[in-house]
Amino acid sequence: MSNRFAVVLAAGQGTRMKSKLYKVLHPVCGKPMVQHVVDHISELGMQKVVTIVGHGAEMVKQQLGTSSEYALQAEQLGTAHAVMQAQPLLEGKKGVTLVICGDTPLITTETIAALLAHHEKMDAKATVLTAYIDEPFGYGRIVRNAEGHVERIVEQKDASEEELRICEINTGTYCFDNELLFQALSHVSNENAQGEFYLPDVVEILKSQGHIVTAYQTSNFEETLGVNDRIALSQAEHIMRKRINRKHMINGVTIIDPANTYISADAVIGNDTVLHPGTVIEGKTIIASDCQIGPNTTIKDCQIGMRTEIRQSHVSDSKIGNDVNIGPFAHIRPDSVIGDEVRVGNFVEIKKAVFGKGSKASHLSYIGDAEIGSDVNLGCGSITVNYDGKNKFKTVVEDGAFIGCNSNLIAPVTVGKGAYVAAGSTITDDVPASALSIARARQVNKEQYVDKLNSKKNS
C-alpha cells in the first residue's frame, strides 16, 4: 500500500444555508459535517490530512484540532484553486491523495477504503467516485471508454442528448497520484463562464497525457449527498439517524420507535437496553446494558451504568451508576456523580453534586454543590442553599443522615453521620453525628383567634 494523503475542501461559506454558522460546521446527528468526514478519513491511516479553510477558518480549526493540518484559501476561486493551497504541504510526496468535500457527512469509511483500493489496484493516476442516479439532472456525467476507464466528465450544460441519458454521475470525490496532481493543477485554466479553476479539469489533463483515469461506482447514492442548504441538511440528518439506529438495533438495543429516537454518531449503547419514544442521546454518551431510557428523555455526554432507568428527564455531563432510578421530570446538571442504587425522583434538580450508594432524593428538591453520603434520605423539598449572591459554597451530608421535608441547608454546612434534621428546619451550623437538629420557631396556638377576627370584621 502506498502513502496516503487527504485534502478536505472546507473553505466555502455556504450562502444557501442562510446562516451565521459556516456550512461545514452545521451538525448532522450532533456532529459537525466536516468532523464526520475527517473522522472517517482518520480511520484509514492517512500520513497527512490537510483541510482547506477559508470562511470561518478559526472555528473550523477549533473544531478539528490536531486531527488535521490546515491550508488557507483566502479567496474562493474554485475547487482546483482550493486543492492548490495544499501544495506547500503535499507537493513532491509520493503516494495517493484523496480529495473530498467537507459537506459530505454521509460518506462511510468503507466506501472511501474501497475507492482507494480500486485506485491502487487499477494503477490509475486519477479515480473518480461515481454513483448511479435515476434523475441525474444537474450532475456531471461520467463517459467511459470501451475499457471501462473514464473518457471524460461532461457537465450538464455541455452534454449532448446521448450524454444526458447517462445516469452515472460525478460525486466530487477523487483519488490522484499526488505528484501528478500538483503538476496538473498548474495547467488548469479559469477560462470558463464562472472564471474559476475546476478540479475535474485535472482529470481531463491527466487523460490527455495518456494516464489511466478510472471510476469507482458506489452502490449507495445517499452516501454522496452534498449538503448545500437546509433541505439537504434535513435529508442528511434523516439518513444518518436511520443508519445509526439500525446499527444499535443490530447490536442488541431495543428502539421502540426509531422514527422518534435521536442518537448521536458517537454514542455507545449496551445490549438489552431499551430506548422509548422521544429519547435524545447527544454527544459521547455511553449507556451500559439492560437500561431503560425514556420516554421523552435527553442525555448528553454522560456515562450511564447497568440496569439504570431514566424517565422523562434531562441528564447532562454527568456520571450515573448502576441500578439508579431517575425521574420522571428530574434534571441532572453537569459535573454530578450519582452512585449505585440511588433514587432521584420527580422534580428534583441536582447540580455538581456527588450522591453515595443507596441515597434518595425522591421529590421536589434542589441539591447543588453538595457531597451526599451513602444511604442518605433527603426529604421532600430539601434544598442546599449554595449561593450567597457572590460565591458558591458546599454542603456535606454524611452517610446515613436523614433530612426532613422542607429543610434548608445553608452552605457551607455539614450534617454528620447518622444525624437527623427535623422537618421545616433551616440549618446554618454543622450538625454533629447522630444528633437531632431542630431549627424552626416553636409552635404557638392562639385559640378562638379566627372567631375574634371574624367578629371584628362583622362589627
TrEMBL record:
> Pathway, according to UniProt?
Nucleotide-sugar biosynthesis; UDP-N-acetyl-alpha-D-glucosamine biosynthesis; UDP-N-acetyl-alpha-D-glucosamine from N-acetyl-alpha-D-glucosamine 1-phosphate: step 1/1; Nucleotide-sugar biosynthesis; UDP-N-acetyl-alpha-D-glucosamine biosynthesis; N-acetyl-alpha-D-glucosamine 1-phosphate from alpha-D-glucosamine 6-phosphate (route II): step 2/2; Bacterial outer membrane biogenesis; LPS lipid A biosynthesis
Q: Which species does this protein come from?
A: Ectobacillus antri
Annotated Mg(2+) binding lies at D103, N228
**What does the subunit section of this Swiss-Prot or TrEMBL entry state?**
Homotrimer.
Q: What does this protein do?
A: Catalyzes the last two sequential reactions in the de novo biosynthetic pathway for UDP-N-acetylglucosamine (UDP-GlcNAc). The C-terminal domain catalyzes the transfer of acetyl group from acetyl coenzyme A to glucosamine-1-phosphate (GlcN-1-P) to produce N-acetylglucosamine-1-phosphate (GlcNAc-1-P), which is converted into UDP-GlcNAc by the transfer of uridine 5-monophosphate (from uridine 5-triphosphate), a reaction catalyzed by the N-terminal domain.
Start and end residues of each stretch annotated as Linker: 231-251
Determine the domain of life of the protein's source.
Bacteria
Top class in the EC scheme = transferase
| This protein's name | Bifunctional protein GlmU
Residues covered by the Mannose-1-phosphate guanyltransferase C-terminal domain? 266-353
State the needed cofactors, names only: Mg(2+)
Q: Where does UDP-N-acetyl-alpha-D-glucosamine bind?
A: 9-12, 23, 73, 78-79, 140, 155, 170, 228, 333, 351, 366, 377
Alphabetically sorted, this entry's keywords are:
Acyltransferase, Cell shape, Cell wall biogenesis/degradation, Coiled coil, Cytoplasm, Magnesium, Metal-binding, Multifunctional enzyme, Nucleotidyltransferase, Peptidoglycan synthesis, Repeat, Transferase
EC number(s) from the headed UniProt entry? 2.7.7.23, 2.3.1.157
Could you give the cofactor binding note from the entry? Binds 1 Mg(2+) ion per subunit.
Q: Which gene encodes it?
A: glmU
- Identify the residues that bind acetyl-CoA: N386, Y387, A423, R440
**Which GO molecular function, any one, fits this protein according to its record?**
glucosamine-1-phosphate N-acetyltransferase activity
Which protein family is named in the record?
A: In the C-terminal section; belongs to the transferase hexapeptide repeat family.
Which SUPFAM superfamilies does this one have?
A: Nucleotide-diphospho-sugar transferases, Trimeric LpxA-like enzymes
Active-site residues, record numbering mapped to chain: H363 (proton acceptor)
Every copy of the Nucleotidyl transferase domain together lies at 6-213
Entry's localization field: Cytoplasm
Coiled coil ranges:
143-170
One of its Pfam families is: NTP_transferase
